[in-house]
């Protein structure tokens, strides 16, 4: 294994019953999982970006979630938990 990871793109159905495309891959040497969900029509349309990783020596699971709106001039919505 050379430490690289391939992106995977798959059609999925969201919890809101929308048919979208999801793409995911690993970054930072396999310690950060990144995923995007494209083609979301709810919430004004846009794409969800999520980054998941561990902090504090693996004691804290972090999820950074951002909704990037299709509409120009609108700021993304962001949540970190």
The share of residues in extended strands comes to over 45%
Largest sheet: 6 strands, antiparallel
Shape: globular
Q: Which structural class do the helices and strands define?
A: mainly beta
Averaged pLDDT:
91
User: Helical segment tally?
Assistant: 0
Count the E strands.
6
- Rg over CA atoms: 14 Å
Low-confidence runs: none
How far is the first residue's CA from the last residue's CA? 32 Å
Key terms for this structure?
about 80 residues, mainly beta, six-stranded antiparallel β-sheet
Give a brief description.
The protein has 81 residues and is an all-beta fold. Helix content is 0%, strand content 59%. The chain is built from no helices and 6 strands.
Structural commentary:
With 81 residues, the protein is mainly β. The protein is 0% helix and 59% strand. The protein contains no helices and 6 strands. It has strands spanning 8-13, 19-27, 32-40, 46-55, 60-69, 77-80. The radius of gyration is 14 Å and the shape is globular.
